[in-house]
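Entry 12.
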Amino acid sequence: QPFPQDPHAQLWGAIGAVFASWMNDRAKFYRRMHDIPESWGTAVNVQSMVFGNMGQNSATGVAFTRNPSTGEHKLYGEFLINAQGEDVVAGIRTPQPLTKAAREEMGDINPSMEEALPEVFAQFKAVVEKLEKHYRDMQDIEFTVEQGRLYMLQTRNGKRTAKAALKIAVDLAAEGLISKEEAVMRVEPGSLDQLLHPTIDPASPRDVIATGLPASPGAATGKVVFTAEEAEKLGGAGEAVILMREETSPEDIRGMDAARGIVTARGGMTSHAAVVARGMGRPCVSGAGEIRIDMKAGEFHARGKTFKAYDVITIDGSTGEVLAGAVKMVEPELSGDFGSLMGWADGMRRLKVRANAETALDAQTARQFGAEGIGLCRTEHMFFDPARIAAVREMILADDEAGRRAALAKILPMQRQDFVELFKIMEGLPVTIRLLDPPLHEFLPHTEEDLASVAEATGLDPKKLMRRAQELHEVNPMLGHRGCRLGVAYPEIYEMQVRAIIEAACEVVGEGRPAPIPEIMHPLVAKGEEMKFLRDLTDRTAKTVIAEKGCQIEYKVGTMIELPRAAIRAADLAQNAEFFSFGTNDLTQTTFGISRDDSGRFLGHYIEKGIFEKDPFVSLDQEGVGDLIRIAAERGRAERPDVKLGICGEHGGDPASIQFCESVGLDYVSCSPYRVPIARLAAAQAAIGEREKDR
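Predicted 3D structure (C-alpha cells):
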C-alpha cells in the first residue's frame, strides 16, 4: 500500500503494527526462549521525536552505566555525530566511543563524545550516574543531542552477560546500593551456564585471521555458515557451527540460537548481534571489517586467505579475534565474584544440592561446583562398561541361579571399586545408589551381526544369545521387567550390588577416611509389599557383610518414586523406606502417559497451540506431577516424620522446578554436575521468595 499521508492513519498504523508484532513467529520464538507468557501482551508508547541528524552539534547514542560484558564500573557505549538511533544499532556506520579513555584504548583517531561535545557530555555523565543510583542497577540508556541540547529517550535495566551480572551484583552490594539478598536475586540462575564452559587456552597458538569488537565473551569452535537457516539446520542436527553475517537482524534469531558463536563484518558493541548474543550467552565478534563475505560463492576472505562454508574456525568473544581452525580450550576457574555470590547464596538457601554422578570424573566435577553429595548414581551405566559387559551378558544367559551367581561374582569386585572411588571423592557426604533399573535385554546385542561378534568375543553360543534376546524382548519395556521387578525375580542381582556397596564402605573406613553415607535406592516400587521384600533383602545382605568385615556402617534404604501409585500410597512405602527420591523423568512419563523419547514429534505442536506452556520434561508440571509429589510428601511424612525427600530427575537443575521443591519442603535436589551452581543459586532465590511470602 502507498504510505498514508493522513497523520492519524500513520499513527494508528504504527500502533497496530506494534500490537500485531506480539504474535509474529519471531516474537513467539523469543518468548519461548525467555519463558515469557503469551498472556502478558505488549504496550505502545507514543512520543514526540527529537532529531540527532541536524548538524555537527547533534548526535545520538547508546550507553550502559557499566560494562555489560565484564561488569566493570565504567561508562560504556557509543555515539554518532549527525545521526539517528538506527544508525548506531543497525551497524550502517561505525560509531565512536563515549569517553576519551575508551577512544585511546581502542587506538581510534576520531574524537569521542567527551571531546567532541564536552559540555553535553558532562551533563550526560551526571544524569546517567543519577539514573543508576535511582534504579539501583546498571542502566541501558538511549539518548539524542539535538543542536546542543541533551534528550534522554529511555532507560532500562541493561541486559548483561553472566560474568557482568555477577560482578555488578557483588559491586552494588559492596557500594551499599543493594543488600546481599537483592544481589543474590539479581543474577538469573540459568545464566551461570555461561560461566561453566571452556575458554581458549592462553598457551595455545593463535592463527588470527581477523579482528573485530569483543561483543560477547567466551569462545567457540565450529563450521562456518553464512545463513541463519543453515545454522538452524546444522545446529539442530548436533553440528557445532559459527554463524557469520554482514550484520544480523531479528529474523536471524533462530540461527543465532542454534549457533555456538556469531561473527558480523559490520556493527558495533550495541548492534543487534552484540546485544542478542550477550543475552543468549553466545560468544560474539562484531564489526570485523577485515572480513569480506561472498554469499554467492559461499566463502569469506580475510587477510589474503579464503575460507569456504563448513571450514572450521574459532572465535574469542573476549578479545574480538577470529582464528583459523580449532583451538585448545580450558575450563573456567570459578572464584572471585562467583565465589562471593555463591557463598551468600549458600548461607540463604535451605535446600541441599546434590549431583547425578556415577563416574569419578562426574563426581569430582560436582564437588568442584559445590555439590553436597550424590543424589543419583545409576549403576546400570557401570554395567555397560566394556570391561564387564561380557560378565553381565553371561549372567543374563545363565540357565539357573547358580549360573547367575557365578557371573555376578565376576562383576562384584568391579562394582565394589566403583563405589570405593565415589565414596572417597564424596568424603563422608551422602551417596544415593540406585540398584539396577533397565530391562536386561538392553545389555544384549540385537542384530545378527552384533550377536555373532559378541559370541566370538565371549565364547558364548550365538544361537543361545539370539534365543535369550528374543525371550527378553518386551512390547513396552519401560513398563515391563525392569526396576525393582528385577530384584524380585532375580534377588541375587540386588544382593550382589548391596554387598558391593557395603564392602566398599568398609574398605573406605578401613583406610581411615570419613565414613560414607550410602543410601540404597530401589527403583520403580509401586506397592508396600514390594518395598518390604526389598528392605528385607537389603538388610539381610548388609548385615551379613558387616558381620564378615567387622565394621559398622550406617546406611539408609529407600525408593525412587516414579509411578503415580507409589505417590498415592506413599504411606505404605514409608513403613520400610527411609527416603523418597522423586524420579521426575519417569514420573512425568507415567503421569502423562507420554514417552520422553518420542515426545519431540508432537510436543512442539502442543506448546505452539498453548496446550502446554513449557515442555513438562524440562520444567516440572506443577499441577499434575507436582500434586503427586505433594501427596507423597504429606503421606510419607505422616507415616515416617523423618523421611528424607528429594528429586533426582532432570528437573533438579531447573530454577522453576527448584522453586516448587522449596515450596513443598523437600530436603534436596539432585542435578547434573554442571547445573549444580545453577541449582545452588535457584535454591537460595526460592528460599528468599518463600520468606517474602511469609512476611
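Annotation: The CA atoms of residues 445 and 451 lie 5 Å apart. The chain has four domains: 7-40, 59-160, 197-330, 349-439+474-694.
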